[in-house]
Design goal:
- The complex is a heterodimer of chains A (104) and B (270).
- With 104 residues, chain A is of the alpha+beta class.
- Chain A has a single domain, classed as Sandwich (Immunoglobulin-like).
- Chain A contains one helix and seven strands.
- Chain A starts with a helix and ends in a 6-residue tail after the last strand.
- With 270 residues, chain B is mainly beta.
- In chain B, the strands form four sheets. In chain B, strands 2, 4, 5, 8, 9, 10, 14, 17, 19, 20 and 21 form an eleven-stranded mixed beta sheet that branches. Chain B has a four-stranded antiparallel beta sheet with strand order 1-3-7-6, with no helix packed on it.
- Classes of the chains: A alpha+beta (104), B mainly beta (270).
- Chains A and B meet through strand 1 and strand 2 of A and loops of B.
Chain lengths: 104, 270
């Protein structure tokens, strides 16, 4: 009986762990030609194809937006001045990348 | 005792116990296997005895040096890096040897750096050594195809990420020759005991660990019937795994050539 309970408890713990393990990831790189490429994904290796991404200016206005392509990438023209990239895979799955941190 | 062991033993008798205890390891070194962010990373290709930072062998021009980048579910992409290599001289604690270096612009995901070296003539043993070597660097924590064979003639396929091991974790790898498991493969293990100094192209004099006896310098384990070996990681840092003589009939220029497979991991303390 104790063993069965342990297994049940383990199953619950394990499935909770799985959900936790699925964290969003987004890295952006300056291509050196006035464009920026952002690469999205998840820590379990699953695809971010179709995930929304937007670029905001200093005062929060949306400069550009779109969705990750089939390679989980999104490329946009480098904005003038301050900007922030928001990778938005739903509630609790957002990543914010400040433009100042984006380098080659 | 196979022929290689016998040959190594004979060599040991001649050269003395200090040399017998350490083995050849092909390195592809960069300071960090698990990077937070991408950028330009240095790579040093050195054929040496890592525990003792001992005799460093002259490398010839590699037959192949390339990287396979994989990120998430994207198809892996292979990029040839052979022409980017520049010759350097690497200084060990006892000599210096010909080695190679390059830099690589890394973005997200897994980057499996693969080297097929020119076979090295080991005069003392009377055979060639060819260590096909793989090192996997990850950027940003998004995994790729680290657990899949790259397709090297001899290859160790990791069954755990070589870049995410805590000290005390186990590491498992499967030894393959021409894509097929090698039951009972002999695997030698050494710790990179002297920090590589990238600006000096040499090893630091200070050792991180002291071996209580020669057996601890070079550890030997054997793979199971599926070619899978298991190793518990006792200390943070770089650990090299060399599966030896995987194709006993293999020759180069009419001489015996030990066809080996090497993989490295980098463990971190919690």
């Amino acid at each position: 009986m104790f063993r069965r309970l342990s297994i049940a408890a383990f199953s619950v713990f394990f499935s909770a762990g799985l959900a936790q393990a699925h964290t969003p990831l987004c890295s952006c790189f300056d291509n050196g030609d006035q464009t920026i490429t952002c690469e999205g994904g998840f820590s379990d290796g699953s695809s971010a194809s179709g995930v929304a991404l937007r670029v905001q200016g200093a005062d929060g206005q949306v400069l550009t937006k779109g969705n990750m392509n089939e390679d989980s990438e999104y490329t946009f023209s480098k904005p003038e001045g301050e900007y922030t990239v928001i990778f938005d895979a739903g509630e609790g799955h957002q990543i914010t990348v400040p433009g100042a941190e984006i380098v080659e | 005792m196979n022929k290689l062991l016998a040959a190594a033993f004979t060599g040991a008798m001649v050269l003395g116990s200090a040399v017998a205890a350490s083995a050849h390891f092909q390195m592809i070194y960069t300071p960090e296997m698990a990077l937070d962010k991408g950028g330009k990373i240095p790579l040093k290709l050195v054929f040496t005895h890592p525990f003792e930072a001992g005799h460093t062998m002259d490398m010839g021009t590699p037959e192949q040096f390339f990287v396979v980048r994989s990120r998430g579910e994207n198809a892996p992409k292979k990029t040839d890096l052979l022409k980017t290599l520049k010759p350097i001289t690497w200084t060990s604690l006892t000599n210096s040897g010909k080695a190679w270096e390059t830099t690589y612009q890394a973005r997200g995901g897994d980057h499996a750096f693969c080297l097929i070296p020119e076979p090295y003539w080991e005069e003392g043993d009377g055979f060639y050594i060819k260590q096909n070597t793989k090192v996997i660097v990850n950027v940003g924590g998004e995994p790729g195809a680290w657990h899949e064979p790259v397709g090297l003639p001899t290859e160790i396929v990791p069954l755990a990420k070589p870049y995410d091991r805590w000290t005390g974790n186990v590491f498992q790898g499967q030894v393959l020759v021409n894509g097929k498991p090698v039951p009972g493969a002999e695997v030698e293990i050494e710790y990179l005991n002297h920090k590589p100094l990238l600006d000096k192209n040499g090893f630091a004099k200070e050792a991180a660990a002291e071996a209580p006896q020669d057996s601890f310098v070079l550890q030997t384990i054997f793979a199971d019937e599926n070619g899978v070996f298991t190793f518990g990681i006792p200390k943070a840092g770089w650990w090299g795994f060399a599966a030896l003589d995987l194709d006993p009939e293999y020759t180069y220029k009419g001489k015996k050539c030990s066809r080996d497979a090497v993989v490295w991991l980098q463990a971190k303390d919690m």
